[in-house]
């Protein structure tokens, strides 16, 4: 088993006033050769956007882009004709494929929107761009992990062009869980959204990240009032 730990305070930070972004991996002006990615997980940005502000129209291609709002409402517009609002309790996945442009704005003028922006390298290049968004309210569970993303369009959650699985866990009591790797050769990057947990005997706190690979399972002990995102991804292309 191999592990890597990224404490919250060691992340890159870019504060533009209207945007305060923490980067787990190298991004734009934050360039850390030792933190380029975790397997095919390329970007994990923890973004806070001031009221009424946002990202103007910009392009992407050949990347799987996942957005998970943590607070507030994020308005999305893209060249595929989608105009939507994603909010806490939703998850959005966009396959950029041959190319797409989009914008993201804080829908509200009086409060921040906070969300995770995650990029994963795809297993197919130049696919037709697609958009997927769901509410998690009908599948959310307490005190256990539930799937929110997979490679399969008919499976629970959104789907992307990669052998990746995401699970969320929200715990109200001390809970011990074993997460089993879905595909041989994959690793798991755990990100603590709120609270404290112990993963494979490693204590972790809010916004800490831990990558685990070369194993077939991981052990998680969650404390009360904890939210954890597990991102299972291939370690090689």
What do these coordinates show?
The model has no long low-confidence stretch (mean pLDDT about 95). About 0% of the residues lie in helices and about 55% in strands. A hairpin with a 2-residue loop joins strand 18 and strand 19 (about 200-205). It is built from no helices and 22 strands. It has about 240 residues and is mostly beta strands. The strands form 4 sheets. Strands 1-20-17-22-15-13-14 form a 7-stranded mixed beta sheet, with no helix packed on it. It starts with a strand and ends with a strand. The chain has strands at about 1-5, 10-15, 20-25, 40-50, 55-60, 65-70, 75-80, 85, 90-95, 100-105, 115-120, 130-135, 145-150, 160, 165-170, 175-180, 185-195, 195-200, 200-205, 210-215, 215-220, 225-235. The radius of gyration is 17 Å and the shape is globular.
Produce a short descriptive summary.
By secondary structure, this protein is an all-beta fold.
Order of helices and strands: EEEEEEEEEEEEEEEEEEEEEE
- The overall pLDDT average reads 96
Assembly context of the chains: single chain
Find the count of extended strands (DSSP E, 2+ residues).
Answer: 22
- Beta-strand residue fraction: over 45%
Measured distance between first and last alpha carbons: 20 Å
In helices, the fraction of residues equals: under 10%
Q: Ranges with pLDDT <50 over ≥5 residues?
A: none
Counting H and I runs of at least 4 residues, what is the number of helices?
0
| C-alpha Rg (nearest Å) | 17 Å
Which shape, going by the Cα principal axes? globular
Question: Describe the biggest sheet?
Answer: 7 strands, mixed
Alpha-beta content class:
mainly beta
Strand order of the largest sheet: 1-20-17-22-15-13-14
């Amino acid at each position: 088993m191999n592990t890597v730990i990224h404490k919250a305070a060691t992340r890159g930070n870019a504060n533009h006033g209207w945007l305060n972004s923490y980067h787990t991996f190298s991004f734009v002006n934050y360039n850390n050769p030792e933190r380029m990615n975790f397997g095919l997980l390329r970007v994990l940005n923890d973004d806070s956007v001031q009221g009424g502000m946002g990202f103007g129209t910009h392009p992407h291609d050949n990347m799987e882009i996942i957005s998970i709002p943590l607070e507030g409402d994020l308005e999305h517009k893209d060249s595929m004709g989608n105009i939507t609002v994603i909010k806490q309790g939703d998850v959005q996945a966009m396959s950029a494929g041959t190319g797409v442009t989009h914008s993201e704005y804080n829908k509200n003028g009086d409060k921040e929107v906070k969300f995770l922006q995650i990029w994963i390298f795809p297993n197919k290049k130049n696919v037709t761009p697609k958009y997927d968004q769901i509410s998690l309210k009908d599948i959310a569970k307490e005190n256990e992990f539930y799937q929110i993303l997979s490679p399969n369009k008919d499976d629970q959650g959104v789907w992307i062009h990669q052998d990746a699985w995401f699970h969320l866990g929200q715990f109200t009591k001390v809970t011990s869980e074993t997460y089993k790797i879905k595909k041989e050769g994959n690793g798991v990057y755990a990100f603590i959204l709120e609270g404290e947990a112990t993963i494979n005997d490693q204590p972790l706190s809010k916004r800490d990240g831990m990558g685990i690979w070369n194993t077939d399972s991981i052990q998680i002990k969650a404390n009360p009032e904890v939210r954890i995102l597990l991102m299972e991804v291939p370690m090689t292309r």
